[in-house]
Structures are given as C-alpha cells and as structure tokens.
Amino acid sequence: MRAVIQRVSRAKVTVSGNVSGEIGAGILLLLGISRSDGQREADQMLEKVLNLRIFEDPDEKMNLSLLDIGGELLVVSQFTLYGDARKGRRPSFIEAAPPAEANLLYEYFVSEAGKRVSKVETGVFQAMMDVELVNDGPVTILLDSEKQF
Question: Which of 106, 100, 90 is nearest to 30 (CA)?
C-alpha cells in the first residue's frame, strides 16, 4: 500500500461537476493498493496516517497528529501510485491491485478511518476526478507499506 499524505487547510474532489468530498484542515490522502495488500496492511497504514505527527504544536514544532488536532480526512484512491516507469516511457501498473480487490480494501480503509476520525470524505473509486487542495506548509509525506521509501 502506498500513500501520499498532504497536510491541507482545505481540499475538495469533484466528479463530473459534482463535489464528492470536501474537507477543511486535515489530510488529503492519495491511496494506492497493490496486489499483495490486505487488511493487515490497511490497518497498519491507517494507524500510521492518523498518528503521523505533521501538525504544529503551540511551539510551531511538527508534534501533533491528525487525531490530536481533530482534523478531517479526504481519501482518494489512486492506482497510479503503483506506476513503474523505470523502463521505457509508459508506466506499467502491473503491481496495482485489480479494481474489484482494490475497491474492497479501499472501502475497508475508509470505514475503519470513519471509526476514529470525525469527518472522513472520499473521491469516487475508478472515476476521473478533479482534486483541489491548499497544501499547508507545504507538507507532503510518502509512505509505503513495504518500506521501499
């Protein structure tokens, strides 16, 4: 499982002109799911995302998590995080989970997040989406469940 975490002051996803998800201060999470991912990887990734200390405390140190600040979460599926562009000019997506499997794990992740975060919004799985954000900082963190980076 791969994630791009962006600390935002606001973010929004629009599909065919309709807003599907919108948050204020919190995290915009772009989530990619691989063929080998399961609930264990989803649980570990969720734990990491929710507790990652990327928000400033009163001393302006990145010392607080999304849970600490009561922030909001916008989760957007993004299979292209598994694009392998090491050979040639066209990325290969062979490591990305097939859509049906990825959607089940994506829905599981969102459901589990909703048990711990007051506001969880989403994009639309497999849709062409417009994602708007104001990256606060900017702060962007990359995570990989296999710890490749």
Answer: 106
Q: Which residues contact 91 (CB under 8 A, 6 or more apart)?
A: 80, 83, 84, 85
Note the pLDDT tens digit of each residue in 92-128.
Answer: 999 999 999 999 999 999 999 999 999 999 999 999 9
pLDDT tens per residue across span 46-68: 999 999 999 999 999 999 999 99
Q: Annotated active-site positions, please?
A: 78-80
Total domains in the chain come to: 1
Contact 75, 120 (CB under 8 A): yes
Residue-range definition of the domain harbouring residue 123: 2-144
Let me know if residue 149 belongs to a domain.
Answer: no
Structural domain contains residue 27 = yes
Answer whether 25's CB lies under 8 Å from 74's CB: no
90 within some domain: yes
CATH number at residue 78: 3.50.80.10
